[in-house]
Amino acid sequence: MVLQNVGNEKAPIMDTWWQTETGMHLISPLPSAYLKPGSATKPVPGVAADVVDENGKPVPLGKGGYLVITKPWPAMFRTLYEDEDRFKEVYWSKIPGVYKAGDMPGKMKTDTSGYREIR
Known about the structure:
alpha+beta
């Protein structure tokens, strides 16, 4: 585990989640947040995210699913250059009404404290 091998378990390791398409970190610890190894913590204030199954239904805590952004964020891409249809198909049509991050199918979990973990 990185925490044991870097900094002798004394250096804080911060994880985040973002994509170029989101324009910024969407899941990231705030300066005063408790850091949990292996977790990107919680969505930043104002970002609405969830972990759902392939039908768009929220999954129970601790169960893997797909990360979705349920409310568009101002920094997010609005289209792909000269290919708006592809943008809608790739990010907005797999689970209607939400932005689906397709780069980690079934790998996102939410623990009992609400922290997001990518496995």
